[in-house]
Amino acid sequence: MAASSTTKSKKTQGNQGNSRLRSAAESAQVDGWEPVNDVAVVGRISSVGEVVTLPSGSQVISVRVVVPRSDGRSDVFDCSAWTAALRRKVASWRVGDVVSIEGHMRRRFWRAGTIPSSRWDVEIAVASRILKSNPT
Predict the structure, then answer these.
(1) Whole-number Å distance between alpha carbons of 98 and 130
(2) Where are the domains of the chain?
(3) Res 112: pLDDT
(4) How many whole angstroms separate alpha carbon 60 and alpha carbon 71?
(5) Who's near 109: CB < 8 A, 6+ residues apart?
(6) How would you label 58-97 residue by residue, b for 16+ Cβ within 10 Å and e otherwise?
(7) Which long-range contacts (CB under 8 A, 24 or more apart) does 2-7 make?
(8) CA angle 49, 52, 55 (to 5 degrees)
(9) For the segment 21-56, what is each residue's pLDDT rounded down to a tens digit?
(10) For 108, how many CA atoms within 13 A lie in the half-sphere containing its CB?
(11) Fold entry, domain 39-131
């Protein structure tokens, strides 16, 4: 899965009449590298959220995936499903299920009152349950 992000850079200020906007992708092509924002996570579900409807009308469901490290610690990833098909799939997962997620890192911004906030999460593009948890 190869994806590229295109982000507009700010136009330079000052007396540079020939300056123009260049996207990150355009810069990369000139510099000889390809931007990639691909993430693959395989781990256990530690929490499944409810479907939330945002003020924009978009719906999203989030899950938290724990991936153990070889040193005994763990990494925790917040992952969000935005399409209807992925929301249905993720909503069927339970705490303890082992899942595989492929997607892209995104930084989400919002305001809590007057305080700006943000967080990083994995926007799910492909998801599957590898192993169901044992019900107790």
Answers:
(1) 5
(2) 39-131
(3) 83
(4) 33
(5) 116, 117, 118
(6) eebbbbbbeeeeeeeeeeebebbbeeeebbebbeebeeeb
(7) 2/34, 2/36, 2/38, 3/36, 3/37, 3/38, 3/104, 3/125, 4/28, 4/34, 4/35, 4/36, 4/37, 5/35, 5/37, 5/104
(8) 150
(9) 556 667 666 777 788 899 999 999 999 988 999 889
(10) 16
(11) OB fold (Dihydrolipoamide Acetyltransferase, E2P) (2.40.50)
> Tokens for 86?
């992925």
Q: Which single residue is written with the structure tokens 């999460």? A: 121
Angle at 129 between CA 135 and CA 65, to 5 degrees: 85
- Contact between residue 119 and residue 108 where contact means Cβ atoms under 8 Å apart: yes
**pLDDT < 50: residue spans in the chain:** 1-19
Name the token pair of 99: 């899942």
